[in-house]
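Schema walkthrough. Field components (list of strings):
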Amino acid sequence: MAELIPLLLQGAWITIQITFIGSILAIVVAILAALGRLSPWRPLRWFSVAYIELFRGTSLLVQLFWLFFVLPLPPFNLELSAYTVAIVGLGLHIGAYGAEVMRGAIGSVGKGQYEASTALNMTPSTRFRRIILPQALLAAIAPGTNLLIELLKNTSLVSLITLSDLTFRARQLDQATFETLTIFSLTLLLYFILAQAINFAMRGVERRLSRGRLRGGLS
Amino acid sequence: MNLWDWDYVWQILPDLLRASVNTLGITLVGFMIAVVLGLFLAVARRSQKAWLSWPVTLVIEFIRSTPLLIQVYFLYYVLPAYGVNLTAMQAGILGIGLHYACYIAEVYRGGLDSVARSQWEAVTALNFAPWTAYRTIILPQAIRPILPPLGNYLVAMLKDTPVLSAITVVEIMQQAKNVGSESFRYLEPITLVGLFFLALSVALAYLVRRLEVRLELR
Amino acid sequence: MITPVTSLTAAPCSTSPITQAYAAPRPESAQSIVNFKDVTKRYGNFTVLDQLNLSVAPGEKVAIIGPSGSGKSTLLRVLMTLEGIDEGQIEVDNQFLTHMPNRQGVLVPADASHVRKVRAKIGMVFQSFNLFPHMTALQNVIEAPVQVLGMKPAEARERAAGLLELVGLGNKFEHYPSQLSGGQQQRVAIARALAMRPKIMLFDEVTSALDPELCGEVLNVIRKLGAEHNLTMLMVTHQMGFAREFADRVCFFYKGQIHEQGTPQQIFENPQKERTCAFLSAVQEAN
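Field assembly_structure (string):
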């Protein structure tokens, strides 16, 4: 078993990388799409809705295959590495779900915050950046954590577009050594640990963002 | 090579449609497994007996936190060593059913918890036997808020079926890849598959919303 | 939010009353810092402000009382541009709030930057405080000066410290709103509004959400402000005692109009109209 672990960890490292970068892309896309969805400008709103429905309505694997097999061909002629396809596909897919989470989170910020900001003569962009978004991000953490764990689990699919993530390595090792039970059990365990790490990290983020907001004693 | 070859589309459509029947079949059977198994898991998790609820909770959390693909690999590649030889189709359906049973168990749990405490207390005070209590009082009330999330998971399962192509189940995505690799034209097959899922998931999502309205949950 | 004013359906550059009025200085507005002229606001079929006319002199302290639903808060809200009006004009410090002159000197609905320019002179304190929960008291007070006025953080912090001390919260700079009592939060809200150096302060039932024993500290701050600064104040309030001793003028609001107005003496001791009497006696009963 000792020989298996280093190779699995190599795969796990790739998994961690694409989870992390994919998450950042997903968060940025989610905020942009949520804003687009709430925009008063109709073309932007329709575009956002189309993006959200398209990426939520089709399977992630279909999206990955499309990016990996179809883009290199005419008329697109865009050849992306498996690594890039993985990040873009995961980011756009989870970002679409994230957009709905952000929309709900932005909607949960009280009207009084908007009114106070207007009374203080803030421009809409300052108001969003300094007042609304920080509060919305805090509200988005709970459902967002679940989405990030979904993203982690979905990274296993990139093994099917030949990226050497944890799942790919597991299959490789299995075909080489046939220690099937050990390999797949270890793999499951590693994913489980990574999921708990995400939980832990997000709880830390929540603690930091909600500093001072929970009922403390009057001092 | 032109952009979109309609002749090619008509050529491959029969193959894709045949495979789509597989896709739908897997989804439905897997859903039935998930719905039934999920109920047992939910009840076991809520049980007062620690020896039952703790292991079940662990299993549910573990399966929910790990990828479906690995779980399917497990069923297809690991079990034969223990004498259980599942076909790809069987492993796929079982894998997807088990995976979603754990999500649906949580939906049931939420539904059961949402039935007011007072109902549970009344049932105890009137000395109902546990199974009768569930059947006649608790479940009917828990069912309404449960149905829309169940509908959403049905859609999610449908969209997860392509994962099974990894163990060579010939569902629609696998068929598209086969067809594409034969003629090196991937644009039409994969796009068609995408449209297939989009159409079905939009239609199902619409039906779920209609159901919510009818159940007066919106 | 800015709705077209229906009385401007005349062709541009015609001798409509508005263009004429704008070309020459108007006697009454030259002496008022806030002027409502025939302001009407409707929610669907319900008219909440009905041809309202109100003129407030600089430094005047106006208390607005009346039954709920009479439009008192809406008056403050349209002045603060939180809501638009359907008819009429509002002038602030000799400038139109909701309209502006275009190049031909004709009044057109104001654009956002004009509104912001005029709005800068008004500050508001809300019934539900509306402090920014993710910022400390000090951060709440420096936020707008830094972000909107472009003040340097160090200078803003110094001013904020002074303002928080003015409202009696010198030892609560680093506290978050959730760690402050209602009265303390409202006082931070007052400091926050003052930080933008408004000429006009609006108080929208600022003690209504407070426990009775906490009202006093907020009212004391308002008293202090009135004594030490030359602010124009418009207050919607249910605190009759406070209105009586503090206000220069009391307006009794009923069904979207000023039903009766006068000095506190006139309104509280010698109400002329029937509804005013009815309201005041009902309030007496409640106390």
